[in-house]
């Protein structure tokens, strides 16, 4: 049976300032083929990082998409400081 894969753009928030594209690529490649990772850091008026989040483009089957979303939710709920994905 052929698995139908679609390209999706996932938002992952609450990331550590020292997270890398490679870190995210490695973590999400277990669910599908990651084609692009974009990390965005919002800074305050003094240039201090305030918010770090990422968009991940991934080609993924529906069942694996649900697993990846559960992974992000589980990570967020178990990490009070919202540090990088481990």
Automatic annotation (TrEMBL):
<feature type="domain" description="RRM">
    <location>
        <begin position="8"/>
        <end position="59"/>
    </location>
</feature>
<dbReference type="Pfam" id="PF00076">
    <property type="entry name" value="RRM_1"/>
</dbReference>
<dbReference type="InterPro" id="IPR035979">
    <property type="entry name" value="RBD_domain_sf"/>
</dbReference>
<dbReference type="InterPro" id="IPR000504">
    <property type="entry name" value="RRM_dom"/>
</dbReference>
<protein>
    <submittedName>
        <fullName>NOL8 isoform 12</fullName>
    </submittedName>
</protein>
<keyword id="KW-0694">RNA-binding</keyword>
<dbReference type="GO" id="GO:0003723">
    <property type="term" value="F:RNA binding"/>
</dbReference>
<dbReference type="InterPro" id="IPR012677">
    <property type="entry name" value="Nucleotide-bd_a/b_plait_sf"/>
</dbReference>
């Amino acid at each position: 049976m052929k698995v139908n894969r679609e390209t999706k753009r996932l938002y992952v928030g609450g990331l550590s300032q020292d997270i890398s594209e490679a870190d995210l690529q490695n973590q999400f490649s277990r669910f599908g083929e990651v084609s692009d990772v974009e990390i965005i850091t919002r800074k305050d008026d003094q240039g201090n990082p305030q918010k770090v989040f990422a968009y991940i483009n991934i080609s993924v089957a529906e069942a694996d998409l649900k697993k990846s979303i559960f992974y992000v939710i589980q990570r967020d709920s178990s990490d009070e400081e919202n540090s990088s994905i481990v």
